[in-house]
Every structure is written in structure tokens, then in C-alpha cells.
Amino acid sequence: MNEHSFIIFIYNCLFMSDKKKRILQATEKLLAEHGFHGISMQMVAKEAGVAAGTIYRYFEDKEDLLHQLHDHILAYVANKISQNVSDDMPLQHRFRTMWLNIWNMATQEDAPLINRGQFENLPRRESHEQKLLEKKMFAKVNTLFEEGKASGLFKNLDNEILSALSLEPSACLARKHINGVYQVSDEALEAAIQASWDAIIQH
User: Fold this and answer.
1) Nearest to 142 by CA among 158, 129, 128, 130
2) With contact defined as beta carbons under 8 Å apart, do 99 and 112 qualify?
3) Were 174 and a residue from 30, 74, 87, 106 both cysteine, which residue would form a disulfide, CB within 3.0 to 4.6 Å?
4) CB atoms near residue 8 (< 10 Å)
């Protein structure tokens, strides 16, 4: 994916029609409640408040709808994680901001599939272009890890592993918190952030 294609993708995510956005939101809600095999295009249309035929103006079929939903959620998450983050901030400050951005997104319950741990099961396109798209969306996260490794501060692991060890625990802990499994105090939250940071730095 070249820079021009990426800009078009982001533009479409930010300025998509109200109907398309409602369809995607309805699909996410229904998937969280019924799973992939429990929904139909008719159910989505009813939930979104549009005619069944309207869906096919934006999506070729159910598979295309799920693929676009995957990218839509990913773009949303990437935007949330990157809020108030700049590449000139100290690494630990950047990391803490990203960690709390994930925590706040999850605890506000505005991403049902992520909050219920279902996003990983959402169909995605397995292609070189898809990987490049995701890399560009999460450029600030990748920059954080690359700078940390280059400076010798972070362990020399793939960025996917560093993310799994340090940032993803934020969403996991948030799910336990909002589901009442474990109530996270302010003190425990700070300890979790520090432990996540300690997991990826050299000792």
C-alpha cells in the first residue's frame, strides 16, 4: 500500500457516510451479542435502521462487511492509542499515554468486540497490503518500539511480541475491571503500567 492509498483509506474512515457508519456499528453490536454465525444481513439492516438492499451499496457481501468492519475497528483503535502522543515525548511517557489510552477506550465500553475479547476472531484479509496498512495505522506504536530497541532500552524482540507483553495487557485488565471480575484501584493501575513497562525493558 502506497502513501496515496493509505491517505484515501484514512479519509474514507473519517468521512464515511452516516448510513455506512451505522451499518458497521450495528454489525459490531450484533456480533458481540450473537457471534459470527448468529447474524444475517437482514438483522444488520434492521439494527442499523436501513433497508436490506442499502447494505449492498457499501458492501459486496457478508464477508466484505466483516473485512471492512475489521479495518474500521483497527483504524478506530489506532487513532485512540495515538491520541496525545508525539514522537518527541520521552519513551516512557509515550508508553504510559498509549497504555492509558487503551485502558480508557476499553473501560468506556465503546468497542464491544474488543471489550469482550472477540476482535481477534473477526475475519481479516491476509495479504501483504493488509500488513502494510496495519503497520501504517500503528506507526506511532512501531516507532516507540523501534526507538526503544535502537537505544538499547527495550528487549530485542519483534514489535508484535513487545506489544503483547506491554500494551495488550491494558485491554485484558480493563475487561476484568468492567466485568466486575477484578476492581482495579488507582494504585493497582499504576502498578500495572509499571509492570507492563518492566516486561519489555532490559534489566
Assistant:
1) 158
2) no
3) 106
4) 12
What is the Cα–Cα distance from 175 to 78, expressed in whole angstroms? Answer: 19
Cβ contact 96:193 at 8 Å: yes
Give me the amino acid identity at 109.
E
3-state helix, strand, coil in the chain (%, to 5): 70, 0, 25
From first to last of its 203 residues, the chain has per-residue pLDDT tens of 444 444 444 445 555 678 898 999 899 889 888 888 888 999 999 999 999 899 999 999 988 998 888 888 888 888 889 999 999 999 999 999 999 999 998 888 666 666 566 777 777 777 788 788 888 889 999 999 999 999 999 999 999 999 999 999 998 898 889 888 999 999 999 999 999 999 999 98
Rounded Cα distance between 45 and 59, Å, is 12
Q: For the residues of 159-187, what is the DSSP string, one character each?
A: HHHHHHHHTHHHHHHHHHHHTTSS---HH
Nearest to residue 176, comparing CAs of 121, 80, 70, 103?
103
Question: First and final CA of the chain: distance in angstroms?
Answer: 38
State which amino acid sits at residue 80. K
Query: What's the pTM?
Result: 0.80
User: Which string of DSSP letters, residue by residue, matches 61-79?
Assistant: SHHHHHHHHHHHHHHHHHH
